[in-house]
What does this fold into?
Amino acid sequence: MDTPHPSARTALVVGASGITGSALVEQLTDQNWDVLALSRTPVPGSTARHLSADLRSPGSLAAALAEERPTHVFFTAWSRQATEKENIEVNAGMVRNLLVALAHAPVEHVALMTGLKHYLGPFEAYGQGTMPDTPFREEEPRLPVDNFYYAQEDELWAAAERQGFRWSVHRAHTVIGHAVGNAMNMGLTLAAQAAICRETGRPFVFPGSETQWNSLTDMTDAGLLAEHMVWAATEEAAGNEAYNVVNGDVFRWRRMWPALAAWFGLEWEGFQGAPRPLEEQMRGTEDVWARIVEQHGLVEPDLARVASWWHTDADLGRPIEVVADMSKSRLAGFTGYRRTEDCFTRLFERYRAERVIP
It folds into this structure.
């Protein structure tokens, strides 16, 4: 089948206002796709057509998508629940509901974003039990634990068999990119920590484990992840596969942390005997943030929409090395690359220009 010109392609981005979704909307728009942006709120500054629907409601999705004819679907949404059983019910259900609602559409490819918890286990069993050696490779078998990523994959594969589209799964490490109000946003969380440290005269204290401080690790830039998802969706030979997706460089936090502190003009402290979680370091700093917002005329007064302390603590507190292998993507033709330090500093500059951080 001939690949259509981009102007004949219509992309449906699900979770369009999130870190990865907004990067996808930006890239696809720049490439002259017709873009449908499905999210609770419109993507700021985007020309994409906004759609609003409840992913947990088949009826809501059916009504919102009845007249739409996307050719490519990019699923980046998730809903955090109290237990993994609930995560499975809700998040696998959202994938299922969406794809059922698109049964009438000429969908050629569905790209699903998941993550390295595919290898690490879910939050309630995070890093426990026997895991594969690093760097993680896509051919590793599933862990013998419940995991909503596995359930989402199963829903994707069942719909692909039923509806005849190609698919891809994109297993990202910690994603850093531009969004406000996202539940997992290390970039903005560290920027908020730095602003509070500067306001209160505190050093910039690494919150994580000794292993994370000293071991090699990697990350995923949202722009690179968007490139990867579009690549897999449009290169026919890349379809029907699961891929790891990380920036391509590796680093140690013991080097990265001083570099980030220097960008903010802060003194810093590394690992000292035990983790010092941000949920403890930053407890009760809402008034400090309010003062910073007033002094600098910032646009988001709600610290809870800026910083996700719990998520950064979970990532940096892991007692294991986490590195993903990109060989499968490289051999299939994907050449995208980012230097993680540059990703952080470009993101901080953008947040500062938009008056999200001082």
The radius of gyration is 20 Å. Residues 1-6 have pLDDT under 50 and may be disordered.
